[in-house]
Amino acid sequence: MQEEPNGKSKKSQRSGNVEELVQILDLMGDWLPKFLPELMKAFRELAFSEQAGREMGKAVAAFYHELLKTGIPQEDATAMTHTYMSTIQDTIKQVLSSRSFNLTTGSSRNSHE
Questions:
Q1: Could you tell me if 99 and 110 are in contact, meaning their C-beta atoms sit under 8 angstroms apart?
Q2: How far is residue 29 from each of residues 25, 32, 90, 109, measured CA to CA in Å?
Q3: CA-wise closest residue to 105 among 41, 42, 44, 46
Q4: Residues 112, 13: Cα–Cα separation, whole Å
Q5: Could you give the 3-state DSSP secondary structure of residue 111?
Q6: How far, in Å, CA of 2 to CA of 80, rounded?
Q7: Per-residue confidence of the chain (113 residues) as pLDDT tens digits?
Q8: What is the 8-class DSSP label of residue 108?
């Protein structure tokens, strides 16, 4: 087995890395359930706040104007901007409708109550 300058084999180093990862995941397993609901609540509030709407509008407008500045025809720039905005909206919807999000906020799409 090939030995590295520090005297450990590559296999030994990988094993140590795996053990470190397991320890980190164990810590995350304790931490995540406590803080994930608050993080997701904050994300939801940020995604739908007045300020978020303003910032999203600025981002979409900047995207559109950059397309025009680079010579993209207005019709194409409009279509590309629509796609860009739809992608942002779809991403937000996916995050907010994900099973993990619903479970952390106390609601579940799969609940049969």
A1: yes
A2: 6, 6, 29, 23
A3: 41
A4: 48
A5: coil
A6: 53
A7: 455 555 556 666 667 788 888 888 777 777 777 777 777 777 777 777 888 889 889 999 999 999 999 999 999 999 999 999 999 888 877 877 765 555 444 443 444 43
A8: -
The amino acid at residue 83 is T
Give the type of residue at 107.
S
- Two tokens at 15? 């094993």
Burial profile 53-63: b = 16 or more Cβ within 10 angstroms, e = fewer: eeeeeeeeeee
Let me know how long the chain is.
113
Give the HSE-up count for residue 71: Cα atoms under 13 Å, Cβ half-sphere: 0
Kindly list the distances between the CA atom of residue 1 and the CA atoms of 12, 14, 98, in Å, as whole numbers in the listed order.
10, 13, 46
Please give the Cα distance from 49 to 68 (Å, whole number). Answer: 29
Q: Residue 80 in contact with residue 67, Cβ under 8 Å?
A: yes
81 in Cβ contact with 67 (< 8 Å): yes
Q: Which two tokens stand for residue 39?
A: 């993080």
